Amino acid sequence: MPLALLALAVGAFGIGTTEFVIMGLLPEIAGDYGVSIPTAGLLVTGYALGVVVGAPLLTVLGGKASRKRMLMLLMGLFVAGNLLSAVAPNFGIMLTGRVVASLAHGSFFGIGSVVAAGLVAPDKKAGAIATMFTGLTVANIVGVPLGTYIGQAVGWRTTFAIVAALGVAGLLGIAKLVPAMPRPEGARLRGELGAFRNPQVLLAMAMTVLGFGGVFAAVTYIAPMMTEVAGYSAGAVTWLLVLFGAGMFLGNLLGGRYADRALMPLLYTTLGGLSLVLALFTVTAHHKVLAAISLVLVGALGFATVPPLQKRVLDQAHGAPTLASAVNIGAFNLGNALAAWLGGLVIAAGLGYTAPHWVGALLATAALGLALWSAALERRTPTTPRTHIVATGTPTADETPAPAHS
């Protein structure tokens, strides 16, 4: 395995920690700022929307920089945002810090996915992408629970200061280990935008929004749900996050393993299973053991969709993958924002802390429907050599370059 993949995983670990640790600390942050839990949930929504905006914006603005340099700049922005969150004197500044950190998220994973895929042979691309995302899933086993424990014991500001330090470590790792990989000569904004004319790219992104929205409908309000409904203590939230992270880790590995072999069948299985588990979670949430098992399954099924969805976008946007890859990372977080907002609505409406699970089940079911539609369209489309648009705008035959190795 190229060492560069480990450097990308370190950066992903820092990003994953800051993205998910907020959910375990919502009660503490809400209490310190004197806001309600649904209002504190805006820290999840704001972060997710920042990813949606930052993914295409920073990818386009950095279009002339090498991919390595862009990854380093993005980690610097991530560090700045987390430092701002750590010292924020009021909720508005805290939200601003979250948004600043989130702007780097989409481009980092989007560009990182392209770099990871370019480091290995064509039949190992999904596995390489999954290796990078392993940093994010390990963050949920180690970084998020530890950050939650520190936040509850010492103060949540300390957690965000530590996350900023993780960002510095990621930046140094990228500088040392990731090879210089300039953008291909034919890669121009016109060609990158041309990828969005492919309906399969748009369908894959819509699947991403709805499928991952299903996951976040369940976990955004995990702390109050597990304490108020399942009956766990506040201190147990740390270990519940470990379980969720373990599910994510296993799901990501399985997704990376099988996406190169049977991508669409994998999506049918994971999205259908996710919908079923979320629906059952409305019942199992009232039993401690069953609630914990459901949480693991949500993490596993949800993150098993990440490598195949990201690979499908890269495959369908062949020849101009960078912007499409980054936008798809934004799509994951658009799903996060949608789910956090809808979950807050049903809780504020008095429907209880299990009501977001029904929202998640509906979102996952809709994603499954899009997957079936996408496959049906693909079967009806005549098989032709794939083409891509270069700087001149002229379609050229698919000539996949040899993968770069570190």
Automatic annotation (TrEMBL):
<feature type="domain" description="Major facilitator superfamily (MFS) profile">
    <location>
        <begin position="4"/>
        <end position="382"/>
    </location>
</feature>
<feature type="transmembrane region" description="Helical">
    <location>
        <begin position="358"/>
        <end position="377"/>
    </location>
</feature>
<dbReference type="GO" id="GO:0022857">
    <property type="term" value="F:transmembrane transporter activity"/>
</dbReference>
<feature type="transmembrane region" description="Helical">
    <location>
        <begin position="128"/>
        <end position="150"/>
    </location>
</feature>
<protein>
    <submittedName>
        <fullName>MFS transporter</fullName>
    </submittedName>
</protein>
<dbReference type="GO" id="GO:0005886">
    <property type="term" value="C:plasma membrane"/>
</dbReference>
<feature type="region of interest" description="Disordered">
    <location>
        <begin position="384"/>
        <end position="406"/>
    </location>
</feature>
<dbReference type="InterPro" id="IPR020846">
    <property type="entry name" value="MFS_dom"/>
</dbReference>
<dbReference type="InterPro" id="IPR036259">
    <property type="entry name" value="MFS_trans_sf"/>
</dbReference>
<feature type="transmembrane region" description="Helical">
    <location>
        <begin position="229"/>
        <end position="250"/>
    </location>
</feature>
<feature type="transmembrane region" description="Helical">
    <location>
        <begin position="156"/>
        <end position="180"/>
    </location>
</feature>
<dbReference type="InterPro" id="IPR011701">
    <property type="entry name" value="MFS"/>
</dbReference>
<feature type="transmembrane region" description="Helical">
    <location>
        <begin position="201"/>
        <end position="223"/>
    </location>
</feature>
<feature type="transmembrane region" description="Helical">
    <location>
        <begin position="330"/>
        <end position="352"/>
    </location>
</feature>
<feature type="transmembrane region" description="Helical">
    <location>
        <begin position="42"/>
        <end position="61"/>
    </location>
</feature>
<keyword id="KW-1003">Cell membrane</keyword>
<feature type="transmembrane region" description="Helical">
    <location>
        <begin position="289"/>
        <end position="309"/>
    </location>
</feature>
<feature type="transmembrane region" description="Helical">
    <location>
        <begin position="262"/>
        <end position="283"/>
    </location>
</feature>
<keyword id="KW-0472">Membrane</keyword>
<feature type="transmembrane region" description="Helical">
    <location>
        <begin position="73"/>
        <end position="93"/>
    </location>
</feature>
<feature type="transmembrane region" description="Helical">
    <location>
        <begin position="99"/>
        <end position="121"/>
    </location>
</feature>
<dbReference type="InterPro" id="IPR050189">
    <property type="entry name" value="MFS_Efflux_Transporters"/>
</dbReference>
<dbReference type="Pfam" id="PF07690">
    <property type="entry name" value="MFS_1"/>
</dbReference>
<keyword id="KW-0812">Transmembrane</keyword>
<keyword id="KW-1133">Transmembrane helix</keyword>
